[in-house]
Amino acid sequence: MKILIVGLGAIGMIYATKLKDAGFEPKILVDESRYERYKRNGRIFNGKRYDFDYILPEDQNYYADLVLIAVKSFDFNNVVENLNNFVLKDTIIMSLLNGISSEDLLRKRYPYAKVVESYYIGHASMRFENEIKYDGIGKIVFGGHVQIEDVFNSAGIEYEIADDMQASMWEKFIINIGINQTTAVLKSPYACFKNSEAREIANGLMAEGVEIAKRMGVRGTDKFIENAFKLIDSMPPNCKTSMMQDIERGQKTESDIFAGEICRMGRELGIATPKNEIVYQIIKRMEKAVSVGPHNGVDKNFFLLYS
Hints:
The chain has 2 domains: 3-161, Rossmann fold, CATH 3.40.50.720; 165-306, N-(1-d-carboxylethyl)-l-norvaline Dehydrogenase, domain 2 (Orthogonal Bundle), CATH 1.10.1040. The protein contains 12 helices and 13 strands. The protein has helices spanning 12-21, 32-41, 76-82, 102-109, 146-155, 165-186, 196-215, 224-234, 242-248, 259-269, 274-288, 302-306; strands at 3-6, 27-29, 43-45, 48-50, 53-55, 66-69, 92-95, 114-116, 118-122, 126-128, 131-133, 138-142, 159-161. β7 (92-95), α4 and β8 form a beta-alpha-beta unit. The longest helix is centred in the middle third of the chain and has 22 residues, at 165-186.
């Protein structure tokens, strides 16, 4: 199977390295700036250098059987267009992005391809300049597909088949809304959830998302918040979410597909989302902040406004 991976960050490297180690030799779609840098420096994963076969968007001599997309949401629109030369009617596309909308966008752009709903859940990788470290705890959740399962089994990729992908994806979405945004605002790893204040913030953010999910007919919503806190309590206390790492590095976050999406849907459905509105504005302000450090950049009135 010819496999194309888009994105060699925290998630993409997990699966690019597993597939390469298993002999699949995936191609990696990159832009010109990354092409030169990656060819020169390679990519370091858990102390080992990897040199992949990189391909540019304008290449017209390769068609993928399977595409794995593992980029941040703000890069997604460019990625969708950059796939044009590599997707045929039998191409399987899996988007491991956070959020709940990337599959719909892919189906609109490539109606002839096979878009399989999926997401990654597990421990976040930690990036240190050119090196990514990962403890191996994580899996891809999707609705099942024989060819994908064969590849994953051959490459030793952990996965789970969900009976109800809508409910499963919404549950992951609710987790992201609570966990990622709380750790980003507090600039703290999972250890922050030992405090009742952090748990209250996360609970409030997730509760607004659950109300929207209920209105949309998503099943199993009564367990979403309980399950989210079980996951939180199972995480290593020093582990950092991807959104917190983005804030630390002064990079753009995925707030638009978390609080931004919840607020948008809330307005459409007539459901109030004041807590996500506040967090969205604060994270947007933090994205612009120059200083980086534990708890720097948090609005001094945050807890007053939130409560």
